[in-house]
Amino acid sequence: MTDQDLNDRQRRSRRRGQITAIGLMAVVALPMLIAYVLFQTGVGIPDGQVNQGELLDPPQRFTQWQPTTLDGEGWTLDPERKHWRYVIPVDAACGERCQANLYLTRQVHVRLADKAYRVKRIIMPVGGEPSDALVEQWREEHPGTEVLQPDETELMASLETTNLPGNPVSEGRYFLMDQEGFVMMAYGPDHTGNQLLKDIKRLLRYSYED
Protein backbone atom coordinates (compact mmCIF):
# COMPACT_ATOMS: atom_id res chain seq x y z
CA MET A 1 0.00 0.00 0.00
CA THR A 2 1.38 3.34 -0.96
CA ASP A 3 1.32 6.46 1.17
CA GLN A 4 -1.33 7.88 -1.16
CA ASP A 5 -3.62 4.88 -0.58
CA LEU A 6 -3.15 5.21 3.17
CA ASN A 7 -4.04 8.89 3.12
CA ASP A 8 -7.15 8.23 1.01
CA ARG A 9 -8.31 5.55 3.47
CA GLN A 10 -7.78 7.88 6.42
CA ARG A 11 -9.75 10.66 4.69
CA ARG A 12 -12.64 8.29 3.96
CA SER A 13 -12.60 7.06 7.54
CA ARG A 14 -12.69 10.63 8.90
CA ARG A 15 -15.54 11.50 6.55
CA ARG A 16 -17.59 8.49 7.69
CA GLY A 17 -16.94 9.51 11.29
CA GLN A 18 -18.08 13.06 10.59
CA ILE A 19 -21.22 11.85 8.82
CA THR A 20 -22.04 9.50 11.72
CA ALA A 21 -21.54 12.32 14.24
CA ILE A 22 -23.78 14.66 12.26
CA GLY A 23 -26.43 11.94 12.02
CA LEU A 24 -26.39 11.36 15.77
CA MET A 25 -26.68 15.08 16.45
CA ALA A 26 -29.62 15.29 14.04
CA VAL A 27 -31.40 12.42 15.78
CA VAL A 28 -31.12 14.23 19.11
CA ALA A 29 -31.75 17.76 17.91
CA LEU A 30 -34.47 17.24 15.29
CA PRO A 31 -37.32 16.28 17.67
CA MET A 32 -36.44 19.26 19.87
CA LEU A 33 -36.44 21.54 16.85
CA ILE A 34 -39.81 20.20 15.66
CA ALA A 35 -41.30 20.62 19.15
CA TYR A 36 -40.02 24.18 19.33
CA VAL A 37 -41.47 25.06 15.94
CA LEU A 38 -44.85 23.49 16.82
CA PHE A 39 -44.92 25.35 20.15
CA GLN A 40 -44.04 28.67 18.56
CA THR A 41 -46.34 28.41 15.54
CA GLY A 42 -49.17 26.22 16.84
CA VAL A 43 -49.06 24.29 13.56
CA GLY A 44 -50.36 20.76 14.03
CA ILE A 45 -51.71 21.44 17.52
CA PRO A 46 -55.52 21.09 17.85
CA ASP A 47 -57.01 24.46 18.80
CA GLY A 48 -60.53 23.26 19.55
CA GLN A 49 -61.53 22.76 23.17
CA VAL A 50 -61.95 19.21 24.32
CA ASN A 51 -64.76 19.81 26.78
CA GLN A 52 -68.35 20.06 25.59
CA GLY A 53 -69.58 22.21 28.46
CA GLU A 54 -68.40 25.74 29.18
CA LEU A 55 -65.70 26.06 31.80
CA LEU A 56 -66.68 28.26 34.72
CA ASP A 57 -63.86 30.74 35.18
CA PRO A 58 -62.82 30.88 37.93
CA PRO A 59 -64.32 27.72 39.43
CA GLN A 60 -66.45 28.38 42.49
CA ARG A 61 -66.41 26.41 45.72
CA PHE A 62 -69.91 24.99 46.17
CA THR A 63 -69.95 25.51 49.93
CA GLN A 64 -69.42 29.22 49.24
CA TRP A 65 -73.10 29.22 48.24
CA GLN A 66 -73.94 28.04 51.79
CA PRO A 67 -76.25 25.20 50.78
CA THR A 68 -78.67 23.80 53.33
CA THR A 69 -81.06 20.90 53.34
CA LEU A 70 -84.78 21.55 53.28
CA ASP A 71 -84.65 21.07 57.06
CA GLY A 72 -82.25 23.99 57.29
CA GLU A 73 -79.17 21.94 58.11
CA GLY A 74 -75.88 23.03 56.61
CA TRP A 75 -74.36 20.83 53.94
CA THR A 76 -70.68 19.99 53.79
CA LEU A 77 -68.59 17.94 51.42
CA ASP A 78 -67.68 14.52 52.79
CA PRO A 79 -63.89 14.28 52.25
CA GLU A 80 -64.04 10.50 52.52
CA ARG A 81 -66.52 10.02 49.72
CA LYS A 82 -65.49 11.61 46.46
CA HIS A 83 -68.15 12.20 43.84
CA TRP A 84 -68.70 14.30 40.78
CA ARG A 85 -72.01 16.12 41.03
CA TYR A 86 -74.44 17.81 38.70
CA VAL A 87 -75.77 20.91 40.43
CA ILE A 88 -79.11 21.84 38.87
CA PRO A 89 -80.56 25.22 39.86
CA VAL A 90 -84.32 25.17 39.36
CA ASP A 91 -87.22 27.49 39.95
CA ALA A 92 -89.24 26.64 43.04
CA ALA A 93 -92.22 25.59 40.94
CA CYS A 94 -90.04 23.46 38.59
CA GLY A 95 -91.28 24.67 35.26
CA GLU A 96 -90.58 23.30 31.82
CA ARG A 97 -86.84 24.07 31.77
CA CYS A 98 -86.39 22.61 35.24
CA GLN A 99 -88.07 19.38 34.21
CA ALA A 100 -86.04 19.18 31.02
CA ASN A 101 -82.74 19.60 32.88
CA LEU A 102 -83.69 17.07 35.53
CA TYR A 103 -84.73 14.56 32.88
CA LEU A 104 -81.56 15.07 30.83
CA THR A 105 -79.17 14.72 33.76
CA ARG A 106 -81.03 11.65 35.00
CA GLN A 107 -80.71 9.97 31.61
CA VAL A 108 -77.00 10.75 31.51
CA HIS A 109 -76.63 9.32 35.00
CA VAL A 110 -78.37 6.13 33.94
CA ARG A 111 -76.19 5.83 30.83
CA LEU A 112 -73.08 5.83 33.00
CA ALA A 113 -74.09 2.29 33.98
CA ASP A 114 -71.41 0.78 36.25
CA LYS A 115 -69.79 4.19 36.75
CA ALA A 116 -73.00 5.87 37.88
CA TYR A 117 -72.09 5.46 41.56
CA ARG A 118 -69.29 8.00 41.08
CA VAL A 119 -71.74 10.74 40.11
CA LYS A 120 -74.52 12.36 42.11
CA ARG A 121 -77.06 15.06 41.40
CA ILE A 122 -78.17 18.02 43.45
CA ILE A 123 -81.46 19.82 42.80
CA MET A 124 -81.04 23.42 43.92
CA PRO A 125 -84.29 25.41 44.17
CA VAL A 126 -83.77 29.14 43.67
CA GLY A 127 -86.35 31.87 44.22
CA GLY A 128 -88.39 30.24 46.95
CA GLU A 129 -89.09 26.93 48.65
CA PRO A 130 -90.58 24.08 46.64
CA SER A 131 -93.88 22.63 47.80
CA ASP A 132 -93.96 19.39 49.76
CA ALA A 133 -95.75 17.75 46.85
CA LEU A 134 -93.01 18.79 44.44
CA VAL A 135 -90.27 17.52 46.74
CA GLU A 136 -92.10 14.21 47.05
CA GLN A 137 -92.36 14.06 43.27
CA TRP A 138 -88.61 14.65 42.95
CA ARG A 139 -87.92 11.87 45.44
CA GLU A 140 -90.03 9.45 43.43
CA GLU A 141 -88.78 10.44 39.99
CA HIS A 142 -85.15 11.16 40.95
CA PRO A 143 -84.26 8.80 43.80
CA GLY A 144 -80.95 9.48 45.49
CA THR A 145 -80.87 13.09 44.35
CA GLU A 146 -80.21 15.65 47.07
CA VAL A 147 -82.29 18.82 47.37
CA LEU A 148 -80.27 21.75 48.68
CA GLN A 149 -81.12 25.41 48.88
CA PRO A 150 -78.36 27.99 48.45
CA ASP A 151 -78.02 31.38 50.00
CA GLU A 152 -79.16 33.22 46.90
CA THR A 153 -77.23 36.38 47.70
CA GLU A 154 -74.03 34.35 47.98
CA LEU A 155 -74.89 32.38 44.84
CA MET A 156 -75.45 35.44 42.68
CA ALA A 157 -72.46 37.30 44.10
CA SER A 158 -70.29 34.29 43.43
CA LEU A 159 -71.41 33.91 39.83
CA GLU A 160 -70.90 37.62 39.22
CA THR A 161 -67.18 37.04 39.66
CA THR A 162 -67.12 34.44 36.88
CA ASN A 163 -67.36 34.42 33.11
CA LEU A 164 -71.00 33.27 33.49
CA PRO A 165 -72.75 35.88 35.64
CA GLY A 166 -76.50 36.17 36.04
CA ASN A 167 -79.31 34.03 37.30
CA PRO A 168 -78.66 30.41 36.27
CA VAL A 169 -82.36 29.56 36.46
CA SER A 170 -83.43 32.18 33.94
CA GLU A 171 -80.53 31.07 31.72
CA GLY A 172 -81.54 27.41 32.02
CA ARG A 173 -78.01 26.75 33.20
CA TYR A 174 -76.73 23.93 35.38
CA PHE A 175 -73.28 22.93 36.54
CA LEU A 176 -70.82 20.14 37.09
CA MET A 177 -68.96 20.07 40.42
CA ASP A 178 -65.67 18.24 40.74
CA GLN A 179 -64.68 15.79 43.45
CA GLU A 180 -63.14 18.53 45.56
CA GLY A 181 -66.30 20.60 45.67
CA PHE A 182 -65.53 23.14 42.97
CA VAL A 183 -68.26 24.06 40.49
CA MET A 184 -66.21 24.08 37.32
CA MET A 185 -68.29 23.54 34.19
CA ALA A 186 -71.65 24.81 32.97
CA TYR A 187 -74.27 23.54 30.56
CA GLY A 188 -77.30 25.17 29.04
CA PRO A 189 -80.40 24.39 27.01
CA ASP A 190 -78.36 23.83 23.86
CA HIS A 191 -76.31 20.99 25.31
CA THR A 192 -77.34 17.44 24.54
CA GLY A 193 -77.17 14.35 26.68
CA ASN A 194 -74.40 12.98 24.47
CA GLN A 195 -72.30 16.06 25.18
CA LEU A 196 -72.78 15.71 28.93
CA LEU A 197 -71.97 12.03 28.72
CA LYS A 198 -68.82 12.68 26.73
CA ASP A 199 -67.54 15.15 29.32
CA ILE A 200 -68.32 13.11 32.39
CA LYS A 201 -66.90 9.91 30.94
CA ARG A 202 -63.64 11.65 30.16
CA LEU A 203 -63.49 13.20 33.64
CA LEU A 204 -64.20 9.87 35.31
CA ARG A 205 -61.51 8.22 33.22
CA TYR A 206 -58.85 10.68 34.30
CA SER A 207 -59.86 11.24 37.93
CA TYR A 208 -59.17 9.15 41.00
CA GLU A 209 -61.68 6.75 42.42
CA ASP A 210 -62.33 5.92 46.08
Q: Identify low-pLDDT runs.
A: none
Residue share in helices? 40-55%
- Helix-strand sequence: HEEEHEHEHHEEH
Radius of gyration: 29 Å
- Give the assembly state of these chains: single chain
Q: Beta-strand level of the residues, as a percent range?
A: 15-25%
Strand order of the largest sheet: 1-7-6-3-4-5-2
| Biggest sheet details | 7 strands, mixed
Mean pLDDT: 89
Query: Can you count the helices?
Result: 6
Distance between the termini: 78 Å
Q: Output the structural class.
A: alpha/beta
Tell me the total number of β-strands.
7
Shape call: rod-shaped
Task: Explain what this protein looks like in three dimensions.
- By secondary structure, this protein is α/β, with parallel strands linked by helices.
- It has six helices and seven strands; from the N terminus they run αβββαβαβααββα.
- The chain has a seven-stranded mixed β-sheet with strand order 1-7-6-3-4-5-2, sandwiched between helices.
- α3 links the parallel β4 and β5 (146-149).
- It starts with a helix and ends in a 5-residue tail after the last helix.
- The mean pLDDT is 89.
